[in-house]
Write a structure and sequence with these properties.
By secondary structure, the chain is α+β, with helices and mostly antiparallel strands. It folds into 2 domains: 84 residues, no CATH class; 184 residues, no CATH class. Helices cover 30% and strands 18% of the residues. The strands form 3 sheets. The chain has a 6-stranded antiparallel beta sheet with strand order 9-8-7-6-10-11, with helices on both faces. α1 packs across α2 and α4 packs across α5. It starts with 11 loop residues before the first strand and ends in an 18-residue tail after the last helix. One of its GO terms (biological process) is regulation of angiogenesis. Pfam families: Vasohibin (PF14822). It comes from Electrophorus electricus (Electric eel).
Length: 324
Amino acid sequence: MTGPTSCSSAANTSRHGRSKSSSSYCHSRSGAECATSTTTNNAGRSSGEEDEKDGGVPFYVNRAGFPIESVTWERMWAHVARAHPDGQEMVDKIRNAAHLPKQPVPSVPNFKPSMSVPDWLHAVQNYMKNLQYNHTGTQFFEIRKTRPLCGLMETAREMIRESLPIKCLEAVILGIYLTNSLASVERFPISFKTQFLGHHFHHVVLGLYCNGRYGTLGMSRRADLMDKALSYRTLSELVFEFEDSYRRYQHSVKKVKIGLYVPHNPHVFQPIEWKYLVLNPCRQGHEDMRKELEKHGRDMRMKVRRGTWPRHEDEGEVWDTAET
């Protein structure tokens, strides 16, 4: 982890000789995606410090890039001290340590012509798992969802260079980058908005389509809310499987957003379409959702066959971070 000092980090040691936090930041009372039961004291924070919220809990975004600025570094540690059960004692123990063991950097998978598509997807998912899920309360890589694809691919290369823990949105961008060479695999974002104990939570995975089967890549604290094998015959089967998984954690799915296929050319100056189809499971019946999902799947496949894609207005412009 690239920080301003040589003796900084949190509960598990980082791959750059510093450590990363094992705080309970993303740990809801149900144990489901991206939440915490810790109440954060927001008093005294200046405007702009609280970058995003999920489940009513703030998390920060490192918007200044690398090396990490001192203000971002100290803000992360202050959050860890508030959120971790051992608090400041844990932080001081790590930051004042004379020596911290250096962790190995995960090797980027190398695609070989002899590898099958499932084998390559498995290698990509294992690589992301080895980076580990980020529990520090600070997202290390800023993902602006309206940024052109070519710019997001540069962020993916930065993730590989820094080799730091990532969260679900970062995993989608990294997954796109690592599968660009698989022309037979179409990729598209699938986003979920859920509710638990009065709070709303957001999650996103990378949908996959290959040879008539659907699956996903992604990152989550829960194994059944991330990668799924290319074994689902229809898009609705895949989405309903996620809905069932959320139900096991007492989360009710409020919205499902399905994007369009992402081009395989990493140099295109076009943003990803994140929410071409928006479904509301609370208002729509199971059969209505199934019909809309199957129609969307057919439409996407036809657009690829015909080589037609919706035009994006102002696709060269970059805005502030969109809803995650």
